[in-house]
């Protein structure tokens, strides 16, 4: 009996050892490549990193103008590190830098696996199942286009979080990140970070190649993929970032089409939304014509209201509850659109951009996954991309300033057409823009911008005439993207300096060239050998006298 048992056990072991220890999916046809790209989009959200790093959130434990402060705790401990622009060492949860880093590089890995297999199919003239048909070849082009855009976009997100802002003529001297163009085959590879100039050139190369190939022909629901409209919106954003304003406008024109006003968000005219969940669903539903591309992410960002950090005081007044060039107080479009958690004193939230959609895995147990839909590219945001490009183009083409005003007017007209609209409408004009943004609107709406210093280029410069219009764009962009993290990217590229008040007496200041504008690469990454982002030896972290602190603020 003993001998027999030993023999049976040995046979089982041999059978197991004879099995190839590889859990990869073996792709054998073009349809499988198409399906795999569904996993080629980031599964985690950068909203929390961006919002807590920006001027869209304040610390509720810091005294306000009246000296009032609240003894609230953070939702997670790493929130404190992000808000103070410190290196995050306390979390690998779904909204942490570690998770966003992994999500982006995982999406890139999917794209690279698909591109490698597509190359093999094309080189062989067949799949493992059959020779390539003309339809297969057409689908392969579409697959390659989407995969290249996925690879470009996720590298772009990584650069905007983990690198300093693109430095234009100085980009060759800035630290980049590994640009992955092939599937990883080594167990413990070593990567060089390279420079930001080469990194952005690689993004542009993939972007242009993807634009040539991408098509909507094979998508069941185009907005869940890099469709042609979203691809051109991404191109417009990319070229705005590197200050190639002619191309930014060119691609924005394509993405927006001949009548963008007819495709803007109808949310403001809805009078059938009663709960926060209603607002979230309305802002992400398939019938919303504004959405060019949506990404479903795992995130508990929306569960933070009522904790230590919130959108209130100047952050609230400069976004969802403050004046503008054609309105006073809170804009009517936000009435009945804002929610609170615990107390309004802790901050408010525009839940349509912030809220979650819960996927139950067990309704009886009440467990499942928290999703946030990122409307990554929209008509409104792309319209503001075009307006900014037109403002800079007006340096040499004065008529472009009128075009920019027309786009800014189109943006606000859509919000003016809301269920709470007044019978008297104030039209946005160049004169109103100039008066409001050279005046003193309060709430720190006006921000000094240093884009020429951050990203010096040969062809474009900020002129005195442009300043109020650029202030208007950055204000409208801040409102449009509230709670989505994009404000942090704008702060970096505009060269906006910030101050975060923390607790009773601590003040952190983010200066123009502060290396903390690049979020530190995750601990798990640099501990494995990757070069860290540089930091000052003694970061600005000086306690101040509480009495002076309260009087000054």
Number of helices: 20
Low-confidence stretches: 1-23, 537-553
Find the count of extended strands (DSSP E, 2+ residues). 10
Q: Could you state the order of secondary-structure elements as H and E? A: HHHEHHHHHHHEEHEEHEEHHHHHHEEHEH
- Nearest-integer average pLDDT: 90
Task: Explain briefly what this protein structure is.
The protein has 553 residues and is mainly α. It has 20 helices and 10 strands. The chain is globular.
Give the helices and strands, then pairings.
Blueprint: H1 2-17, H2 30-36, H3 47-53, E1 58-59, H4 78-83, H5 97-124, H6 134-162, H7 196-213, H8 228-241, H9 245-256, H10 276-284, E2 291-298, E3 309-310, H11 313-317, E4 338-340, E5 348-350, H12 351-354, E6 357-362, E7 367-378, H13 379-393, H14 399-416, H15 430-437, H16 451-454, H17 467-480, H18 486-494, E8 498-502, E9 506-510, H19 523-526, E10 542-543, H20 546-552
Antiparallel strand pairs: 1-3, 2-7, 4-5, 6-7, 8-9, 9-10
């Amino acid at each position: 009996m003993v001998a027999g048992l030993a023999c049976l056990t040995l046979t089982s072991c041999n059978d197991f050892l004879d099995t190839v220890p590889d859990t990869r999916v073996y792709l054998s046809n073009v349809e499988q490549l198409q399906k795999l790209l569904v996993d080629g989009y980031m599964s985690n959200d950068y909203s929390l990193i961006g919002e807590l790093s920006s001027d869209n959130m304040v610390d509720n434990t810091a005294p306000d103008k009246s000296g009032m402060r609240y003894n609230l705790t953070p939702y997670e401990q790493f929130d404190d590190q992000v808000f103070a622009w410190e290196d995050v060492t306390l979390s690998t949860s779904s909204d942490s830098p570690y998770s966003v880093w992994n999500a982006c590089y995982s999406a890139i890995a999917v794209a690279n696996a698909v591109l490698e297999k597509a190359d093999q199919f094309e080189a062989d003239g067949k799949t493992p199942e059959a020779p390539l048909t003309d339809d297969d070849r057409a689908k392969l082009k579409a697959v390659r286009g989407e995969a290249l855009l996925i690879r470009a976009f996720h590298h772009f997100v990584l650069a905007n979080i983990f690198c300093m802002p693109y430095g234009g003529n100085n980009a060759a001297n800035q630290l980049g990140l590994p640009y992955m163009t092939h599937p990883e085959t080594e167990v413990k590879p070593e990567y060089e970070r390279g420079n930001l100039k080469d990194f952005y050139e690689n993004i542009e190369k993939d972007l242009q190649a993807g634009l040539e190939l991408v098509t909507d022909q094979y998508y069941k629901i185009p907005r869940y993929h890099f469709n042609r409209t979203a691809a051109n919106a991404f191109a417009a954003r990319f070229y705005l970032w590197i200050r190639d304003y002619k191309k930014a406008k060119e691609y924005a024109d394509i993405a927006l089409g001949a009548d963008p006003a007819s495709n803007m968000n109808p949310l403001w005219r809805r009078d059938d939304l009663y709960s926060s969940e209603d607002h979230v669903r309305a802002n992400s539903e398939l019938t919303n014509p504004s959405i060019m591309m949506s990404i479903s992410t795992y995130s508990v960002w929306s569960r933070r209201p009522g904790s230590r950090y919130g959108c209130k005081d100047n952050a609230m007044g400069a976004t969802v509850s403050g004046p503008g060039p054609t309105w006073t107080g809170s804009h009517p479009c936000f009435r009945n659109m804002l929610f609170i958690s615990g107390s309004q004193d802790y901050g408010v939230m525009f839940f349509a951009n912030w809220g979650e959609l819960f996927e139950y895995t067990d309704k009886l147990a009440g467990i499942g996954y928290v999703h946030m839909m990122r409307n990554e590219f929209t008509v409104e945001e792309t319209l503001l991309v075009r307006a900014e490009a037109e403002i800079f183009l007006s340096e040499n083409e004065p008529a472009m300033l009128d075009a920019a005003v027309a786009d800014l007017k189109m943006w606000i007209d859509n919000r003016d057409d809301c269920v709470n609209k007044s019978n008297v409408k104030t039209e946005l004009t160049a004169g109103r823009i100039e008066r409001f943004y050279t005046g003193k609107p309060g709430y720190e709406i006006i921000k000094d911008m240093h884009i020429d210093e951050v990203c010096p280029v040969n062809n474009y410069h900020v002129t005195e005439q442009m300043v109020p219009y650029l202030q208007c764009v950055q204000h409208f962009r801040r409102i449009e993207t509230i709670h989505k993290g994009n404000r942090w990217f704008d702060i970096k590229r505009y060269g906006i300096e910030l101050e975060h008040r923390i607790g009773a007496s601590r003040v952190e200041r983010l200066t123009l060239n502060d290396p903390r504008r690049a979020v530190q690469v995750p601990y798990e990454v640099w501990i494995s050998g990757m070069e860290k982002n540089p930091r000052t030896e003694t970061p600005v972290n000086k306690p101040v006298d509480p009495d002076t602190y309260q009087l000054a603020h």
